[in-house]
Write a structure and sequence with these properties.
Radius of gyration: 20 Å
Shape: globular
Number of domains: 1
CATH superfamily: Aldolase class I
Strand content: 5-15%
Structural class: alpha/beta
Number of strands: 12
CATH topology: TIM Barrel
Length: about 400
């Protein structure tokens, strides 16, 4: 049936390349992104998804910590950083970070994800102490922390060679780097929206240095703002080439832009069509990435459930608290949670097989008795609204 759908949509030339394991070109990416038949595109992406990952969908029990919203970059797409008329400034002390971790000690969390603004008043020692503090509370947890933009600031504060900085961070407990920071690899978009941050070339050099230091990394693309379709495809081609060179990326996550509270608030909200299309094209173009993730905070649980048939094989995780994108624009509500049972339900209802993973996609054999304390303490957590604000 899927072959007939693909054939009727005129996508057989790309289908034949996909089935032969042949790499798709930039022009193929443009054709896919602009093709009117989303279902045919999803069927094509699903062929690759199932070839690479079978029927399983992964999830992780994780916790996000955004340790400061003080930032000197002034990105036009961001509603997170402290500004007049926006969120109040904060920087967590080491003790506050540990208290956040203690709040969820009854959940067998496998990954702590830490990203934040660029606060130039934080010394080098703060970042090392931050990592050590996490390991002190959760000795076996995987720490995924610091985008390349944060690494650039940490490097500046350290005033030593970058390889030594990475060595210090790893010794303190850093296990991998998240995606983010560059948003999209376009000099035009960079200059217009986030000119104070790293350029694309600088971001890639730090990424290469991370790979050389033995750190894995997770890749992203922020889409749905002022970027063009050709710039989206160019981003995918550049990320694919970087992965060819380093091989250190674990997962790719397309992130949909939410305009609420940003300097781009007049732009339209993301759509299910746009989110599913971004996931499907990413799966088809990124033949050297094993996993494609749908981030339910931005895509919503409902779209993420459907995304399992449009190329995505990972729903991310429980999250617990997330301060970069808020439910319904409510910056007072930091609890954004799906419990393990809710994630399993989203996966099984879609006809997929749920697999709990660690940060490297090793299967975790979970104890069901340690499942859902979050649901008991926050019974409204099941009601995740469709509207999310970045």
């Amino acid at each position: 049936m899927s072959r007939r759908l693909i054939e009727s949509a005129g996508l057989m030339p790309i289908h034949d390349k996909v089935m032969a394991g042949e790499r798709l070109t930039y022009d193929d990416g443009l054709a896919l992104y602009t093709h009117p038949n989303l279902n045919a595109l999803g069927a094509l992406a699903n062929l690759v998804r199932e070839r690479m990952n079978g029927n399983v969908t992964y999830y992780v029990r994780n916790q996000h910590i955004n340790y400061t919203n003080v930032c000197n970059k002034g990105c036009k797409f961001c509603a997170f950083y402290a500004q007049k008329g926006g969120p109040d400034p904060y920087t967590m002390s080491i003790e506050e970070v540990q208290n956040r971790l203690r709040m969820h000690l009854d959940v067998p969390i496998k990954e702590v994800h830490m990203v934040a603004g660029i606060n130039p008043k934080l010394p080098y020692s703060y970042y090392l102490d931050l990592l050590r503090a996490v390991k002190a509370i959760r000795p076996g947890v995987h720490i995924k922390a610091f985008t390349c933009v944060e690494i650039a600031e940490i490097w500046r504060q350290a005033n030593k060679p970058l390889d030594e900085v990475f060595a210090d961070l790893r010794e303190a407990g850093l296990d991998s780097l998240p995606g983010g920071g560059i948003e999209i690899l376009s000099d035009r978009v960079h200059m217009e929206l986030f000119g104070r941050k790293l350029s694309g070339d600088q971001w890639m050099e730090i990424s290469k240095a991370a790979a050389k230091a033995g750190l894995t990394q997770y890749a992203t693309m922020l889409y749905g703002h002022i970027e063009t379709v050709p710039e989206r495809v160019e981003h995918l081609v550049k990320m694919r080439a970087l992965q060819d060179e380093t091989g250190h990326f674990v997962t790719f996550t397309p992130l949909s832009f939410h305009p609420e509270g940003t300097q781009l608030a007049d732009l339209p909200h993301p759509t299910g069509d746009g989110d599913l299309r971004a996931l499907a094209v990413s799966r088809l173009m990124l033949d050297n990435f094993q996993h494609i993730k749908t981030f339910w905070i931005m895509n919503t649980p409902q779209v993420s459930q459907l995304a399992q048939w449009y190329g995505a094989d990972d729903l991310d995780g429980t999250i617990h608290e997330y301060e970069i994108t808020y439910q319904d624009g409510d910056q007072g509500n930091k609890k954004q949670v799906l419990t393990r049972r809710q994630l399993i339900g989203l996966i099984e209802e879609a006809g997929r097989t749920p697999i709990e993973r660690d940060s490297f996609y090793n299967q975790v054999h979970a104890d069901d008795e340690l499942d859902d304390p979050v649901r008991r303490s926050n019974p409204q957590s099941a009601a995740i609204p469709l509207a999310m604000a970045r």
